Amino acid sequence: MKRAALLALLVAAIVVAFVLAKGSGSNNNTSTSASGAPVTIHVVNGKPQGGIQKITLNKGDRVRFTVDSDVSDEIHVHGYNFHKDVKKGGSVSFNFPATIDGIFVIELESRGEQIASLQVNQ
Fold first, then answer.
1. CB contact set of 87 (below 8 Å; sequence gap of 6+)
2. What's the CA gap between 81 and 102, in Å, rounded?
């Protein structure tokens, strides 16, 4: 009986830890650190693996991210109006100063598929 109760407590603790870890990840999206650490966005079947990635940093930091894609498309950073083509099976990198505060969509332009959200805090 004691063994079953301990096993039930262990399972409950694992479930709680999993739920907390999942919740803090906000749909498994990744974020940059305050220093603007680079982020890699993996596009699989024309969609961002793990959901729309969130890149958060402060105005004045550098925006640094790479898109690895299994489809050809144009990567468009709205607001900043940066465009770069990525080939199927290729990757493309962005590195620019965060000079405009706000929230901006990063998408596969031709598909209209959002792959990331760039949030620049003032």
1. 69, 72
2. 14
